[in-house]
Write the structure tokens for this entry.
Amino acid sequence: MIAAMGEANELGANNELLWHLPDDFAWFVKHTKGKPVVMGRKTMESLGRPLKNRLNIVLSRSAVTVEGFVGARSWEEAFSLAKHWLEEKLALASDAEGVVLESEIVAADNSSELAGNTAKNLDENGDWIARKNEIMVIGGGEIYKQAMDFANRLYITQVNACFTDADTHFPTIGNTWKPVFGKSHEKDEKHSYSFEFQVFEKNL
Ligand SMILES: NC(=O)c1ccc[n+]([C@@H]2O[C@H](COP(=O)([O-])OP(=O)(O)OC[C@H]3O[C@@H](n4cnc5c(N)ncnc54)[C@H](OP(=O)(O)O)[C@@H]3O)[C@@H](O)[C@H]2O)c1
């Protein structure tokens, strides 16, 4: 899952985000591009248009007819669509490169193997390496709450401020989650708040 939240887990208000943080947007793009993203119907409405270079899956109990979004009436259907898309992508990549990439999908699912060795997860700048084949749950509040039980990695941007007008919140990150990455970002002329990029993995 990937989310940005305030100090009291605030996510949004009136179906909009609470901040404009360009470097957080870049982090979001880095960790979602080329992947299936799963969102709730209200988050789809908040986005307004599909995210480029991603399969945009929308959970809704009604039909989704907005161009560029694919509807799913259950998590089972959402995961089936996502896995099918990833498999097609891997097949195309292996045709093009003459290599078998199935191992990557296994690695992406097998987060516990990575949890113990944070150094392996970092690039030469000390940034968290983008995985290729994760299914990314991108919100909002209702969807995050449901996915906490089965998600295996959290990408959290912790914004250092409180937002009293928020009407949507991220669930509590309990001690089943182990922090495996953290990097601070200062407040500056483009960012009204300081924040920290964090990654958590399930403490199995
Ligand atoms: N800060 C962040 O990182 C972040 C990220 C994303 C969103 N947000 C914010 O979060 C807010 C939206 O969140 P939200 O909690 O109001 O709504 P949401 O989680 O985006 O969407 C809720 C909708 O999803 C559908 N749904 C939920 N569970 C389902 C299931 N199991 N099967 C099928 N459909 C299901 C239902 O749609 P139907 O009613 O159509 O059935 C439900 O009304 C906005 O303020 C947005 O800006 C913040």
